[in-house]
Amino acid sequence: MKRRRTRAPWMLAVPAALALAFLILPLVGLLVRAPWRTLPQRLAEPAVLEALRLSLITATLATAICLVLGVPLAWVLARTRFRARRLVRALVTVPMVLPPVVGGVALLLVLGRNGLVGRYLDDAFGITLPFTTAAVVIAEAFVALPFLVITVEGALRAADPRFEEAAATLGASRWTVFRRVTLPLIAPGVLAGGVLCWSRALGEFGATITFAGNFPGETQTMPLAVYLALETDPEAAIVLSLVLLAVSVAILSALRERWIP
Amino acid sequence: MFRRALTLALPVLLAFTAACGGGDDKGGDATEAKTVTVFAAASLTETFTELGKTFEAAHEGVTVKFNFGSSATLAQQITQGAPADVFASASPATMQTVTDASLAEAPTTFVSNKLEIAVPAGNPAKIADFADLAKPAVKVALCAEQVPCGAAALKAIEAAGLKITPVTLEQDVKATLTKVTLGEVDAALVYRTDVLAAGDKVEGIAFPEADKAINDYPVAALKDAPADGLAAEFVTLVLSQQAKDLFTKAGFTTP
């Protein structure tokens, strides 16, 4: 028997189509205006490759940091009860809605050379974070972490707690339960969160240019290169944008169907 | 019942808002003629805001709207069809982008600006002259060479025969200065006017090679200006003696 397909009523289909067009048209614009003939040699330019390499490395490092710190935070938010939990959850999501430039200023005021914490880093260890690749990773992790925490927390809430309870009654310690039962249970959620986190880190602009600055090979990621290219060479900016778009779409489409419910 | 009512009301509401939108567009022309839209380099923020007030005071019912930003960005926006009446840029090169697209009348140079070394208050790195910026321990911020202040900085550095490795190349002069104000860099090359505008948070150090990299600021009324006559009048104000006094006070050099 053939499964009946649902047809959307026009009241839903029309706005849905408009929404789709609204999201896709700008991307079409990029494709139409792209200088396809000169594309290969533009892509092979060392400056482009350098920015792309830096973007991929920093986004991956930022995601790793987010996984190490974010999964435990998500667990605490989903599985424990404490009084300030609501407030903590709200604070966790703040970087998602904060203008990234504000995030960059905040990071500069805390970790900068004269910052609250940065001052001591400088005095005691001679470490100054701004204008280093490490600063790029920090800026990216700052804006991307909430995406991971929220996704993983959702997965934890959706996971059946009875498996964990069963393991606990069989004598497993809490850490063992987390490692052997909870983590495999929410693995798809963690992966989905990681992908979202990585994509957000890859596209980070505001916090990076404010906190990490812009220097080729050191702190100039793809989004920064796009912005500066737009000043004098819009075609180069289109080419760079295309690369970012292609990377993001490839990653998201490969994982969306499979991992994000 | 409620859902039914909503189903019926929604298209009506949509049609109504659409009609309102259309009406606004039609009424727009009359009010638009009373607005002068000025695209000006970020370094003109303070002086042009002041001039805007003078202009509004002299023309009743006219509003001056500003779009301040990096000259290169503004030039791109104008060539992409942004509805601007007047363009004042921080370099002849960025103005040329607009004149090459035959969008502007003959531009006139109205001020010029000189670079200075900006250091945080108290000059923690003890910068004395231009050559100090080449020391490896000194953290320097420059404008990216794609924007006028960066192009000027490069010219000055070449004129002095120095090899300066900056820690960052910022997208405009204000962003570059901010890194000094926050004390994150030891020095930056910015315009004299920006040093003056920053007050006592930064100190300026003049250097002789700055004379080799003087930036001329051209201004022009745009050909497709929605507010045609007013655009020309605004340019006249920018070239007036009154404006000259204002610019000189802000640290510009007037021709």
UniProtKB/TrEMBL annotation, chain A:
The chain crosses the membrane at residues 57-78, 90-111, 131-152, 181-201, 236-255. The keyword Transport applies. It comes from the Bacteria. One of its GO terms (cellular component) is plasma membrane. It holds the Pfam family BPD_transp_1. Residues 52-253 form the ABC transmembrane type-1 domain. It is a multi-pass membrane protein. Its main location: membrane. One of its GO terms (molecular function) is molybdate ion transmembrane transporter activity. SUPFAM superfamilies: MetI-like. Keywords: Cell membrane, Membrane, Molybdenum, Sulfate transport, Transmembrane, Transmembrane helix, Transport. InterPro entries: MetI-like, MetI-like_sf, ModB_ABC, NifC_ABC_porter, Sulph_transpt2. PROSITE patterns: ABC_TM1 (PS50928). It is found in: Cell membrane; Membrane. Belongs to the binding-protein-dependent transport system permease family. CysTW subfamily. The complex is composed of two ATP-binding proteins (CysA), two transmembrane proteins (CysT and CysW) and a solute-binding protein (CysP). Part of the ABC transporter complex CysAWTP (TC 3.A.1.6.1) involved in sulfate/thiosulfate import. Probably responsible for the translocation of the substrate across the membrane. Part of the binding-protein-dependent transport system for molybdenum; probably responsible for the translocation of the substrate across the membrane. PANTHER family: SULFATE TRANSPORT SYSTEM PERMEASE PROTEIN, SULFATE TRANSPORT SYSTEM PERMEASE PROTEIN CYST. NCBIfam families: Mo_ABC_porter, modB_ABC. This is Molybdenum transport system permease.
TrEMBL record, chain B:
It comes from the Bacteria. Keywords: Metal-binding, Molybdenum, Signal. Residues 1-21 form the signal peptide. One of its GO terms (biological process) is molybdate ion transport. InterPro entries: ModA, ModA/WtpA. Molybdate binds at residues 43, 71, 173, 191. It holds the Pfam family SBP_bac_11. One of its GO terms (molecular function) is metal ion binding. Belongs to the bacterial solute-binding protein ModA family. This is Molybdate transport system substrate-binding protein. It comes from Actinocorallia herbida.
